[in-house]
């Protein structure tokens, strides 16, 4: 889930991470306050990038300028359905760098580039990539760039935020380095939807994509404490082949293979982490509820921990009740797979 900038900055503030002062959010032109202290930086609130190069970030010196900026940004970014605009005080002068934490194939990683800002992609300076120990949640080395910019304390706080909030990406660009502190001028934050059950108190603005009825049901199930186990994913698509897939990597490989073979998936789904049969049954019922499907593929890699008999019991119950009248192909392996096969064959 992508998070709007003003909400991401509020999350950072909870960890005593500095952001520009006097952050304000205005959802409509009528909401714009006449009592702001100018100058301010105004930004259009969208979830895509490159807004600065498209006129979506501007220094504002009066109420009239701010109203004009709102109108201009609303028109230029109309196709992206802006949430509104934010304003904040201009930060003190300093040096701008790029700072981000994300995941690569080996695990979490911290990336720092001494040339931050809108032209980061064109930077000729090499980025410093610092692995993060996933167990201690600390960086595995202390390169010179952290000492140069006195970033140790800042890095520790951002790491704490990244892991406690279950971020997939926390990008600060630019990070303004002043005489006595580091200020996050712009923030991009992506949260792991599957960890939402750990953050039920967190109230964030939903993204621009309107969820379908089935996607909403899946979201409610994942947030319901009565459905124990790892969250399940369901994304509704326009095709006619229903998919019930297991394993993050395996599900994507299977999905790509089907598309490359000419099939049109009716959904993307994924369950892993040994979910309960009740949760898998609920996911299966959601998938089977979509009309005009021509087949169902139940597949995944060879599981290490997910109990095949447990998940097949949930799938079998849904199949027995719904009784779909199209072909079903099943390919699963892992603990108790023979028992799981018998459960399905007896359905």
UniProtKB/TrEMBL annotation:
Presence of keyword Calcium: no
SUPFAM superfamilies (UniProt xref): Glutathione synthetase ATP-binding domain-like, Succinyl-CoA synthetase domains
A single cellular component GO annotation: succinate-CoA ligase complex
Residue span(s) of domain ATP-grasp fold succinyl-CoA synthetase-type: 3-176
Matches recorded under InterPro entries: ATP-grasp_succ-CoA_synth-type, ATP_grasp_subdomain_1, Citrate-bd, Succ_CoA_ligase-like_bsu, Succinyl-CoA_synth-like
Top-level taxonomic group: Bacteria
Gene Ontology terms: biological process: succinyl-CoA metabolic process; tricarboxylic acid cycle
Catalysed reaction, written as an equation: oxaloacetate + acetyl-CoA + ADP + phosphate = citrate + ATP + CoA
Gene Ontology MF: a single term: ATP binding
Presence of the UniProt keyword Signal in the record: no
Domain spans labelled ATP-citrate synthase citrate-binding: 234-344
Keywords, in A-Z order: Acyltransferase, Ligase, Nucleotide-binding, Transferase
Protein name: Uncharacterized protein
């Amino acid at each position: 889930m992508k998070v709007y900038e003003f909400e991401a900055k509020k999350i950072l503030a909870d960890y005593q991470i500095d952001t520009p002062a006097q952050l304000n959010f205005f959802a409509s032109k009528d909401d714009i306050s006449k009592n702001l202290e100018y100058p301010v930086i105004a930004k259009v609130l969208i979830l895509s990038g490159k807004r600065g190069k498209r006129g979506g970030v501007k220094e504002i010196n009066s109420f009239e300028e701010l109203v004009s900026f709102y109108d201009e940004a609303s028109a230029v970014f109309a196709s992206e359905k802006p949430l509104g605009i934010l304003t904040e005080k201009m930060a003190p002068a300093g040096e701008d760098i790029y700072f981000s934490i994300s995941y690569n194939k080996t695990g979490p990683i911290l990336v720092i580039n001494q040339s931050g800002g809108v032209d980061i992609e064109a930077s000729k300076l090499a980025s410093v990539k610092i692995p993060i120990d996933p167990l201690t949640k600390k960086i595995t080395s202390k390169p010179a760039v952290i000492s140069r910019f006195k970033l140790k304390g800042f890095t520790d706080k951002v790491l704490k935020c990244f892991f406690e909030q279950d971020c997939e990406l926390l990008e600060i660009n630019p990070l303004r380095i002043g005489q006595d502190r580091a200020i996050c001028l712009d923030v991009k934050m992506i949260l792991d939807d599957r960890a939402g059950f750990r953050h039920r108190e967190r109230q964030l603005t939903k993204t621009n994509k309107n969820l379908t009825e089935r996607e909403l049901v899946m979201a409610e199930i994942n947030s319901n404490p009565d459905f124990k186990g790892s969250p399940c994913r369901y994304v509704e698509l326009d095709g006619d082949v229903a998919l019930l897939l297991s394993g993050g990597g395996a599900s994507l490989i299977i999905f790509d293979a089907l598309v490359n073979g000419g099939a049109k998936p009716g959904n993307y789904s994924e369950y892993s982490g040994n979910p309960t049969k009740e949760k898998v049954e609920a996911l299966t019922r959601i998938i089977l509820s979509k009309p005009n499907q021509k087949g169902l593929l139940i597949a995944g890699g060879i599981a290490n921990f997910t109990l095949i008999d447990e998940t097949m019991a949930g799938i079998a119950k849904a199949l027995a009740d719904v009784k779909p009248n199209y072909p079903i192909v099943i390919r699963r392996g892992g603990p108790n797979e023979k028992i799981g096969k018998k459960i399905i064959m007896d359905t």
